[in-house]
Amino acid sequence: MNHQVRLAARPSGLPRPTDWSFATEAVPDPGPGQFVVAVSHLSIDPAMRGWMDARPSYIPPVEIGAVMRAGGVGRVTASEHPGFAVGDEVVGVFGVQEYAVSGGQGVMKIDTSLAPPVTYLGALGMTGFTAYFGLLDTGKLKPGETVVVSGAAGAVGSVAGQIAKIKGCRVIGIAGGPQKCRWLTEELGFDAAIDYRAGNVRKALREHAPRGVDVYFDNVGGEILDTVLANLAVGARIALCGAISGYNDMRHPLGLRNTTNLIVKCGTMRGFLVMQFAARFGAAIAELAAWAAAGTIKSEIDVVEGLENAPAALRRLFAGENLGKQLVKVAAP
Amino acid sequence: MNHQVRLAARPSGLPRPTDWSFATEAVPDPGPGQFVVAVSHLSIDPAMRGWMDARPSYIPPVEIGAVMRAGGVGRVTASEHPGFAVGDEVVGVFGVQEYAVSGGQGVMKIDTSLAPPVTYLGALGMTGFTAYFGLLDTGKLKPGETVVVSGAAGAVGSVAGQIAKIKGCRVIGIAGGPQKCRWLTEELGFDAAIDYRAGNVRKALREHAPRGVDVYFDNVGGEILDTVLANLAVGARIALCGAISGYNDMRHPLGLRNTTNLIVKCGTMRGFLVMQFAARFGAAIAELAAWAAAGTIKSEIDVVEGLENAPAALRRLFAGENLGKQLVKVAAP
Fold this sequence. Notes:
The structure is a homodimer. The first copy, chain A, is of the alpha/beta class.
């Protein structure tokens, strides 16, 4: 049987148990040009929250009653597709289910001699590409600059900070709690870490970046983004990757007040989506794989067991409970 | 005698009469390497409000007791400088006074056969350069795009909109009141104008830019900027020129709430200062002068008589009373 997690209702604020339903179907057979994947791990990402809303965005919302959208890795178990054979290890958007039928669109075979499959959901997958292109292309990072990363102990943030170190920058991470902050400086080589839960981010930022921030890789938006906006160096670039602080906030919080500083500092704030760089994923994976092999990028994973716990795993992101990449291990069929 | 307007106190909110003092000095003599300019017209700009505050910015604040900083045009009346002769017509930052001593820094001679002196404070001066570089370099305008300009009936906005028309764009101006809006569409050739005082800017923007805004040239910040942020086309560029709506607002208004749309639309919001393009002013003036001569750029001026009325002229900007470039005509000495 194929167990699935479906979207039952559009959440208001933080998704609740009643926003999900659990379904069981027969394991599908592939039609002509299709194959079936047995999913081993799911990628749990803040973007999933946005896909649950009805409002128009960069991809269509998940329909009510549909299997929840999610990236995953798995193995081909049946195939009527000339490009995919039984036993192939693949990464793609397979949804929160044990078995997925695919026509191959957006699915890539992965080289498990290079890294274990789950790494293709992390540093060698969308997570790594997001950090890589956001920092280098959108952030236009230059050696010697002062870089700040928020959500620094999360999947994308932790890779972004490590890439900035490789590129010869001074890197300051912002994360929640002393444990994450220690991990950033002691394990990942960040130059400094600011615990936003401990209070005065503005003061800490002035201490650690006295000449202002050259590049800010933003995963959180809201107050922390506004605080960094007040502390820019001339010519600063802000790469807007995500804004997790506001994804569940229905109150429509106070907005950014310090954007006028972009004028004073001739600064740039630019949003990006990793898919705009899809044509260059091949080049990125080569460089990321070399760094991972050399140990200059450490890829932490945080695994929740069981498909049925995918909703709980998503909540972990919004509570800031994950360290590194949040995954769900799908029970072996 | 040399009449002057000096900064007496740092304003809280809109500058009041008590924030200014009026002084009279002897007309200065030039020292070696200096010359004296008799100022004929002053440029009155929103940026002057920022120069009155103590907080650090892109140039030092005007000191309490100092002559207020302002651009101006005038004629050299005495010179000990090898590069400037008596009778030369010049543009520079001479301050709110009848006579200024200068060492020549930032002063340019102007060609009054090409255009009258006041035009060098408008379309052929910093105003024109600001519109030109903000739109073409910061905004990266492309033919056929949909362009929105706020403060569209002001000095910079009116030139920016006309340049966008020359470049083959669809141009929507945002201004206050039916008279300004009529002027934009009937006299300056804007495709549409939105009267923000009439109410629903969001609805009007959706009507006039149904596929979203490609380039937004922002002079006002605040609510109007936030409204445009909610209506971006994919790949939109926002050129932040000014934020006049907040310059006098001590209440620290609600901030921008729609910046997350920069992620969804892969948009860019970039601040600029005209001086970053100083090396290219020569090229810009050649193109701007050709457009002005051909009549494709009309340069409206709004003249207040009398040096002593400079504070009142500045208030006109914040009340939205000016049409085109606000000048003060300094009484003939």
